[in-house]
Amino acid sequence: MTKGKIAVITGASRGIGSKIAEKMAQEGYSVVINCNKSEAAAQTLKEKITALGGNAQVYKADIGNREEAKGLIDFCIDTYGDIDVLVNNAGIAQIKLFTDISADEWEEMVRVNLGGMFYCTQSAVSHMISNKSGKVINISSIWGLAGSSCEVHYSTVKAGTIGFTKALAKELGPSNIQVNCVAPGIILTDMMTGFTEEEMAMMRGEIPLQRFGTPEDIADTVLFLASERSSYITGQVISPNGGIVI
Question: What is d(CA 67, CA 44) in angstroms, rounded to the nearest whole number?
């Protein structure tokens, strides 16, 4: 158990982020659940965590806005007095032909996925540097490693997440701050609901382990990177993907 540690998880109202928040709370972290459009789901998650004896707070913020991202980190400091772990999970995705991507869609993809990570991390790191301690865990994707047809803008920002991780790890290493990245494979979340059974079967057949990942698989990886067991790991990309990208 990790008693007394404090974590902020962005985009934690559902899917992978929700499971990360839940598992971190079970491990003894006090967690700040960030949401933007799904506040009711975030409150339900908070109630679930507290009913199980955990400690959680909800903070609504559009982290693609610098002031709102700063407000999220300030809320954590004001509430718990510190921040030990930042999980940059919030993001948007879209499947669309490259030639059909509008300027607004491109800019929103960059604003939320890269801008949100940048703004939250910059605010959190100022506290971590003072403490000479901290962990930043960024959620990318296998498509940031390999690229995905009809997801050029999404693949671009997820590749940017990896570059951000590696550069920042070098800069913050002397301050004893670890920066790592998790690049999930195909994970069973509500983002998969648009696919037919036939499409799902085809995708599953391409995975060497012959199954989709679960939010628990990703949460377990995040927990490892947040723990002291990973104290000599920084600037790395860990990809729980069943072998589909090697």
Answer: 26
